[in-house]
């Protein structure tokens, strides 16, 4: 098992990564918190596969209840949030109760937001079960979606611990591994050139990842994120770099309808646009076509869905949280490991987006 420490202005917490560590690590962390009761918020698919195992670990020593959320991005919603708060109130959860988020990023964000707001904030622990959650379980961004935009209603609320049991990842469908791998690539591109080059040389298929490779990419990804979050917990500056690929990615996800395209696939398309644009703005010397081919080989979509107009996407991007004063903020790369934010006027970015789409389809 490997341990990392996440340090933020509002406190530090451990991340443990290993196989079959859930019971021992969770019991250890929960003992420190001494909760009055526990509410497990679990993804439906994860609950049916591993729910009993988690409940057995907790229910002997603590009053424990489970709330199951149907799987899928469309459930990172007001309705799920409301249902969790209603159940918490009916069960009589108090300020010393603990929430366990058991699932991928949807559950981590939703359960974390419920924990951030219930009685103005109760503790929670992240128990991630997807590759993508190496990103979502760390750093304290918690939120639900609104039809008008991704993660628009949220908070910063750090978990007390992150326990990453690799045993759970063995049942993850390959398209979900791919979604998580987009955030792994992002972490390499924005924060660690050696890691990025290791990824490009070692990973061309995702259905035969061994534990060693998986653990390496999870730990390196978290290390990049941890360094950024340590410097800027609440995104007043450099944390925006973690949004590389997201300005367009989030616009695609919201325009298509949540759950139609995975978060990672949206981010992959967004990163390709950002890399192409970085070539125009910062003369970034990365081989765009080679990267695009690597993405294709991995199974990522490499173009914006045809049905989405540049106008509709630009309108979405203007509502992005990084946007201000009628301009759109993009995260671009000067080189690998050197991201920078750049602001664009609406018409300027629309014309660049259209050029990129035309060039991509020739
Ligand atoms: N808070 C953050 O910093 C942050 C960072 C990145 C992404 N996110 C958010 O994370 C979300 C995406 O997370 P995700 O990709 O984990 O999606 P997800 O939580 O929807 O999980 C993906 C799918 O995998 C299934 N699943 C989960 N674990 C499984 C397992 N072990 N075995 C079999 N099936 C399993 C789920 O049922 C679901 O269908 C998005 O909402 C995104 O906005 C947040
Ligand atoms: O932790 C961050 O900061 C990130 O931007 C990580 C992203 O991968 C993640 O998708 C995050 O939820 C995006 O946040 P948002 O504020 O752009 O909604
Ligand atoms: Zn993301």
UniProtKB/TrEMBL annotation:
Enzyme Commission designation: 4.2.3.4
Keyword match Transmembrane helix: yes
The record's section on CDD domains has: DHQS
Write out the GO MF terms. Answer: 3-dehydroquinate synthase activity; metal ion binding; nucleotide binding
- In what residue span(s) does the 3-dehydroquinate synthase C-terminal domain sit? 180-323
Summarize where NAD(+) binds, as residue positions.
Answer: 71-76, 105-109, 129-130, 141, 150, 168-171
Cofactors named for this entry: Co(2+); Zn(2+); NAD(+)
Q: Which Pfam families match?
A: DHQ_synthase, DHQS_C
Q: Which residues cross the membrane?
A: 98-119
Give me the residues that bind Zn(2+), please: 183, 246, 263
Residues annotated as domain 3-dehydroquinate synthase N-terminal: 67-178
Subcellular compartments: Cytoplasm
What cellular component GO annotations does this protein have? Answer: cytoplasm
Which pathway is it part of?
Answer: Metabolic intermediate biosynthesis; chorismate biosynthesis; chorismate from D-erythrose 4-phosphate and phosphoenolpyruvate: step 2/7
Q: Which reaction does it catalyse?
A: 7-phospho-2-dehydro-3-deoxy-D-arabino-heptonate = 3-dehydroquinate + phosphate
What the entry lists under InterPro entries is as follows: Dehydroquinate_synthase, DHQ_synth_AroB, DHQ_synth_fam, DHQS/DOIS_N, DHQS_C
Q: What keywords would UniProt list here?
A: Amino-acid biosynthesis, Aromatic amino acid biosynthesis, Cobalt, Cytoplasm, Lyase, Membrane, Metal-binding, NAD, Nucleotide-binding, Transmembrane, Transmembrane helix, Zinc
Q: How is the cofactor bound?
A: Binds 1 divalent metal cation per subunit. Can use either Co(2+) or Zn(2+).
A single Gene Ontology biological process assigned to it is:
amino acid biosynthetic process
Role played: Catalyzes the conversion of 3-deoxy-D-arabino-heptulosonate 7-phosphate (DAHP) to dehydroquinate (DHQ).
Family as reported in the entry's similarity comment: Belongs to the sugar phosphate cyclases superfamily. Dehydroquinate synthase family.
Indicate what this protein is called per its UniProt record: 3-dehydroquinate synthase
- Gene symbol of the encoding locus: aroB
